[in-house]
Amino acid sequence: MKLLPGFEAEYKKRHDEIWPELAALLKEAGIHEYSIFLDAAGNLFAAMQVESEVAIDNLPGHPVMKKWWDFMKDIMETNADSSPVSLPLEEVFYLP
Question: Is the pTM of this model over 0.85?
Answer without folding.
Answer: yes
